[in-house]
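Quick illustration for those who missed Monday's session on complexes.
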Amino acid sequence: MSKTILVTGGAGFIGSAVVRELINNSEHTVINLDKLTYAGNLDSLTSVADSPRYQFEQADITNAEQMDRILADTQPDIIMHLAAESHVDRSIDGPADFIQTNIVGTYTLLEAARKYWSSLKTSDASKAEGFRFHHISTDEVYGDLEGTDDLFTETTPYAPSSPYSASKASSDHLVRAWGRTFGLPVVITNCSNNYGPYHFPEKLIPLMILNALAGKPLPVYGDGQQIRDWLYVEDHARALILVAQKGNLGETYNIGGHNEKANLEVVKTICDLLQEVVPQDANYRDLITFVTDRPGHDHRYAIDASKIEKELGWTPQETFETGLRKTVQWYLDNKPWWQKVQDGTYRGERLGVGG
Ligand code: NAD
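Prediction with nicotinamide-adenine-dinucleotide bound:
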């Protein structure tokens, strides 16, 4: 049955993949609620923006009146909550926005959802019965696996290290509490590092691709031996849509691609892929430059995704090798998208003020 799904943060990296997947491969109507911070980019949605099943609402999740109005106007069956401040380095330079959006914003949205859900119980009991609030989070809430072969499971205790992961951990706790205390029908997912098309160029993989193409240094933190578990963003989007509709209420699902790689290995693989598709005399690897490590940098993250695989039958379609190849090719084919991000015009144009 066709539903109305409200996606917060739908102009971001993962949110836009969810919106594209819903418009292209489902019958559902999508409301994209996004503040359009520096990380929000409507250019990532041009392929679906003309669909009659797509609607955009520019709004801030910390604004209770806006949240109440939008929920009342759009009457969603499902809320998929992705809006967040998401960049660890920015959370170290200035944590305030992370506390505001990730914690206060999630609280504000939960309260709006609770009010809306209560009103549904009197106006449309069967819609209230099917209503779901899906909170999207990160494996960084579990902290650091340094020195062990362990994997994060859904019962791993929280031990966040950065202001970003602490704010996400806090939002997870709020969502779980709203489920337990107020009976709000919630489900939570915690996912490993994503990569793929439309990724903002401040993040590791796009930064390395674009710097290498420009002949600029490839800055690697510390010794580059920090291990991340990589997942192709479209595999994550498919997992999220599955959990939003079929995940058991009150449960948490870890999502990951079984792709543990050291950062230095990722950067070297990108260099080798580029050497293959954009050959040059000098080796791209010569651009690798080691820089002072990030304070509090976690050494290793790795996800046990067996629960979502067994209970919901999800498996990733891409390996790291196929996904990375697709990603490198996407950046080569979509220069106008990333050039507008790099020169800032993706922001000016949408505000109508030009470059
Ligand atoms: P992103 O930074 O690319 O996008 C975030 C989006 O939220 C942007 O469009 C931004 O405009 C919007 N936003 C920010 N503050 C807002 C506010 N106050 N009100 C409304 N909208 C606001 O982030 P992403 O990488 O797409 O991550 C999406 C979610 O997935 C986040 O909750 C993040 O914690 C989680 N996550 C990310 C990863 C990853 O590898 N990127 C991995 C696991 C989980």
